[in-house]
Amino acid sequence: MTKKRIAVIGGGASGLVSIKCCLDEGLEPVCFERTDDIGGLWRFQVNLQHPTVLFVEYENHRSLHEPYYMMPALGVTLCEESHVREDAHIQAEVTAPHGYRFSFQTTVCSVKKRPDFPTSGQWEVVTESEGKKEVNVFDGVMVCTGHHTQAHLPLESFPGIEKFKGQYFHSRDYKNPEPFTEKRVIVIGIGNSGVDLAVETSHVAKQV
């Protein structure tokens, strides 16, 4: 019996877990990742088009990855993003059996039902890589692009922000603390990103 082919869109944390679950169910996943490596949100990139996570506390994210934990391979509970990326590669290469492939630097242009979808349940997926478009048919599609892809900056919650003469931006645009040297900084939000930024900028800023 031919294995059902599943298109997994995104090679980040959710994509890797989805690949593992597909393999466990005897499916054949094909992962499309627009960048040149796996990791997604957990992979630090200077390119401002992509989000940044500087540190990850494994215990806080354990439920997200069940039953496919991303941290045990390195045996740490608090680590820098480079460790997360290393662990992701270990899990992808060692834990997961063969039977899947990654298509890096590939953008998914469209996903639509085939004309015979009511009977076949199949999807038509159009991808683009190096300027060339390709059409493939899959038995299922898993969208794993994450909900942190688009930054949410609720400026309407801060009346008078248009008169503020300083700089303001979303945490996804933060890359290093140097621009905050000897400046007074306010960090709004005390989640993982807020704490990371507050700690890092405190080493160079006048006040945080």
From TrEMBL:
One of its GO terms (cellular component) is endoplasmic reticulum membrane. It is found in: Endoplasmic reticulum membrane. Keywords: Endoplasmic reticulum, FAD, Flavoprotein, Monooxygenase, NADP, Oxidoreductase. Its cofactor is FAD. It comes from the Eukaryota. Gene3D superfamilies: FAD/NAD(P)-binding domain. Its EC number is 1.-.-.-. The keyword RNA-binding does not apply. GO terms for molecular function: flavin adenine dinucleotide binding; N,N-dimethylaniline monooxygenase activity; NADP binding. InterPro entries: FAD/NAD-bd_sf (IPR036188), Flavin_mOase (IPR000960), Flavin_mOase-like (IPR020946), FMO-like (IPR050346). Belongs to the FMO family. This is Flavin-containing monooxygenase. The gene is FMO5.
